[in-house]
């Protein structure tokens, strides 16, 4: 099991008084003279701290000559419990404790952006977009920090809970909700997705109303692993989508292998599609491939009536973008074509 599994759904709080337990091979001999070592043997060195300031000072000394991101254990001197963490993750949490607190506490809400059936003009569903409640923090900044601090699994899981709750609070049965997820936070799909399935049961949501899509910033290197994740979602009755088609998932072979229920065409191919011949050629290819495999096509980033009209005439199934509606805490219930 990966070391990162410890962060999945577990609130990790740094003890105010504790000790760092480090493998001696990660500290060079010269550096050892600079550090206040409380205990050491042939394999281990222990550094106690009584304040966060002490901890920061020790970490800065440890990082001064070490360029590698090694792992250590933090020991709570009161409870005698410990947990592993990388030195870089620990340092990031100490630098921005307010962001770590937002993630730990799950201080989120979900804004919903409408997705419309382009042939009937009816609202088909909504995409859930994460927002913070206590502080105005850019979601991109929060996800970037989560990756740097080792909290991406926790953030991804709590974002899913917020999205399912929004579905329960605002959407009718049968309306889909599209939920982004990070494949890199799911190590063993059958185990890691149990929490998601529990949330679905808790809020009594029909599984087929949930569409899980690969988040746009995620760089997928293991396609077979991604297929196992998508297959696990589908085996539970949920739907899956590939985001940003055209920037990594545009080949017929890839779509045939992963067999998503939906594909979302990257907004760069939607922009000025009514006049851009290269974008039009790409969209023709996407529609042809999707029809061959039986995949529903969603065009994201529609911003003008001209783009909407051209895509409608092309036969694109679903549309999303500011022309249709912006993300809102309480979603719009219908779309009226201007």
From TrEMBL:
One of its GO terms (molecular function) is cyclic-guanylate-specific phosphodiesterase activity. It holds the Pfam family EAL. It comes from the Bacteria. Residues 92-338 form the EAL domain. This is EAL domain-containing protein. It comes from Halobacillus salinus. The lineage of its organism: Bacteria, Bacillati, Bacillota, Bacilli, Bacillales.
